[in-house]
Amino acid sequence: MTILDIRDLHHSYSRNAPVLRGIHLQIEQGEFVGIIGLSGSGKSTLLRCINRLIKADWGEIRVPRALLGHESDGAGVDVLTLGSTDLRHLRRKIGMIFQQFNLVKRLSVIDNVLCGGLGYQPALRTAARIFTRAEQRQALINLRRVGLLEHAYKRADELSGGEQQRVAIARTLMQRPAIILADEPVSSLDPKLSRMVLDILKRVCREDSITALVSLHTLELTREYADRVVGLKAGEVVFDGATRQLSEQAVEGIYQRGRAASDL
Q1: Phi and psi torsions of 20, nearest 5°
Q2: Position 48 in a domain
Q3: What is the pLDDT, as a whole number, of residue 73?
């Protein structure tokens, strides 16, 4: 099933500096997609457009209506047209993992994880950070899944970088996501910790049938973990295929500095 259907997506931060230039992508449920490209190629912007942290200038990002809690009619719905209520419902189902973890360092590990479920709570409970026993139990389950159960009641800033990113994964799992967007999730970690985090991320995605779009900073990690690779260059898709198809010629086309395909 197609879970993301991106059509002719454009975005610019200024009139003369387009960042996304006509992105077309279809992402199937359960895929673990590595997104690669030079800095400035549009990787982060693309991820942020999907959950509308950035609203693209034009194009379409279609998702199944079921992600909004509606009955599916097969047509899907365009993320760019959603009102505030439907957008809030969509963001429950799209988890985001950032390069710098985005934890509240003064809070405990379990409180950070519980914050992942705030989108499902009434506003009053959210403001007061009141959690049910069932929510606390689920947070502990998610911490166990990422190997951090024994650290549940430590402050988040007592943990190492790799451990903090694992907390971020557990927090995302509290959303019961259908999609996870991970923006350079291991770029600040050493190779050993990078593999530990990606092992966990890929495992939980497989176990829960979560679709993942992961921006990665090295070809080695991309080839090791991605089922499919999307290569961006100057805001355009210049490669889209199975990881085994990522030839040296394709890599050169992605990383060679210069004009995008439409300029050639």
Answers
A1: -115, 130
A2: no
A3: 64
pLDDT surpasses 60 at 262 = no
Terminal-residue alpha carbon distance, the chain: 34
Q: Is 192 exposed, middle or buried (0-12, 13-18, 19+ CB in 10 A)?
A: exposed
* 232-255 average pLDDT score: 96
Q: What is the pLDDT of residue 16?
A: 80
Q: Is there a contact between 235 and 54 (Cβ–Cβ < 8 Å)?
A: no
Assess if residue 127 is contained within a domain: yes
DSSP-derived secondary structure for 116-172: GGGGGS-HHHHHHT---HHHHHHHHHHHHHTT-GGGTTSBGGGS-HHHHHHHHHHHH
pLDDT of residue 199: 98
Distance CA 91, CA 86 (A): 9
Report yes or no on 228 lying in a domain: no
State both tokens at 205: 């995605």
Q: Confirm whether 120 is domain-assigned.
A: yes
Residue 29 DSSP code: T
DSSP 218: -
Mean pLDDT of 130-135: 89
Tally of domains within the chain = 1
Q: What is the mean pLDDT of the chain?
A: 92
Q: For residue 259, is pLDDT > 70?
A: no
